Amino acid sequence: MGFKMGIVGLPNVGKSTLFNALTRTAAAQAANFPFCTIEPNVGEVAVPDPRLDRLAAMAQSKQIVPARMTFVDIAGLVKGASKGEGLGNQFLANIRETDAIAHVLRCFEDGDVTHVEGRVDPIADADTIETELMLADLESVEKRLANLSRKVRGGDKDAVAQERLLKEAQAMLEAGKPARLVPVAEDDQKAWKMLQLLTSKPILYVCNVDEASAARGNAQSAKVADMARAQGAAHVIISAQIEEEIAQLDREEAALFLSEMGLEEAGLDRLIRAGYGLLGLQTYFTVGPKEARAWTIRQGTLAPQAAGVIHGDFERGFIRSETIAYEDYVALGGEAGAKDAGKMRVEGKTYEVKDGDVLHFLFNA
Q1: What's the pLDDT tens digit per position in 76-103?
Q2: How far apart are CA 243 and CA 254, in angstroms?
Q3: Burial class of residue 54 (count of CB atoms within 10 Å of its CB; 0-12, 13-18, 19+)
């Protein structure tokens, strides 16, 4: 599994520029006017992981297959979007289909790039977007509660449970807070996710700064960092302009460019890692002479379900997994060395897969 992250924000904050860099394409039109993104652009990107390259080199794998992430560039929202202003609710619907939200905030001054509100204030921008999403959620919750009323009166258990969750969301939204602050019991997690509330999704604030501020940020991004900490949210600092330039370079040129800018790595790599952390995702590997491949799973996934990410038959017929920790695989020179040293473990159905595990599954067809 991968995951889908929606890129949202006010017009002209750098969303499409960031998307172009993410997907290494010019598929999204980046122009200096509102609503230049008429349809949501969808792009898949490889998840950077140097561990995969090292494993492939050790196993002399012919092919390297990284994990994938999907990014959705969603047109700029404006105040009143929940009531149809700007391009309205069609874009709110696109956000519902994502697993998490990357909220791009303008943290740079540039007189040549217009701001829809005529000022640069990332905190106010964040409030504008959050308010529109909460208003849209509140309208959705009220409609669903009205539609459920007959089933609830009839004693439908699913409807009663759904009504309970919707009322909890409604109370939070009416208090002016996002639905993600509602404490949800483990047993309710699946039903809660099915509600697809916009403000229930994890949020990652992306501070789009000027080139000079790419390494350490600036006063504007510091305000966003404080806001994120207060909310228990994550944030990253990126210069979308730098990322777009890096996207046009080969690996060696990009490394030299980053070094000259005082950066240890591309901001996009930090963004992807932050996205993984946001959703509690991790990676395991399958390695052999034909290919080395990275697979994405949620933290806490058991071995049969991890096998099911490759193919449903692997999960249904799961017998056991032969497991080597990444550190042991590397330190002992590969699978044979790990096996000789007793570091290849046989794990059963209750094994919780760890980040970096190198796995080989045995199953009944």
Answers
A1: 565 654 455 444 455 677 788 888 999 9
A2: 10
A3: middle
